[in-house]
Amino acid sequence: MCRLPRDRQKGKFSIASRKTILKGGQSGEPALLAGNSGASKLIRTATDQVEDLEMPPLAKRGTYPALTRDEVALIKSWIDEGFPWKTAAVESSSSNGK
Ligand code: HEM
Question: Residue 34: inside a domain, yes or no?
């Protein structure tokens, strides 16, 4: 989907794990709020509700087109379901993703 590779992390935000997603980045605001897609920053940016943080950036839509309504709807339902996260063996955290 739309993500920067690990080595191009910006704004101290990491999507490496569910935990870092919930923690958020520089702004201190988590990207996703479990069960509340409407208030989730990821959805707000992807639907152009955050001024100057429209995602993908407006100037780059030639290369990176906006998500389709179906894609947004799919991500929203995942968030509203609490965004279940399968933790593979890779994540050593003691939590099981909850
Ligand atoms: C919490 C939500 C998000 C935040 C805080 C965020 C933040 C940022 C920032 C700070 C930049 C660099 C600014 C710039 O290049 O003008 C960026 C670039 C970008 N973002 Fe986001 N973004 C978010 C969500 C998304 C989503 C949902 C998508 C895709 C649907 C997306 C796609 C992109 C793309 C394609 C770029 C340009 C990358 C490049 O130039 O190579 N972002 N984002």
Answer: yes
Cβ neighbours of residue 36 under 8 Å, at least 6 residues apart? 79, 80
Ligand 1 probe mutation, 1, 2, 48, 67, most atoms within 8 A of CB? 2
Could you tell me if residue 96 is inside a domain? no
Select the more confidently predicted residue: 58 or 89. Answer: 58
89 belongs to a structural domain = no
Which of 45, 47, 67, 76 to probe ligand 1 with, by most ligand atoms within 8 A of CB?
A: 45
Domain containing residue 52: 12-80
Q: Is 56 in the pocket of ligand 1 (CB under 6 A)?
A: yes
Structure pTM? Answer: 0.82
Q: Provide CB contacts within 8 A for 77, sequence distance 6+.
A: 37
57 in contact with ligand 1, CB cutoff 6 A: yes
87 in a domain, yes or no?
no
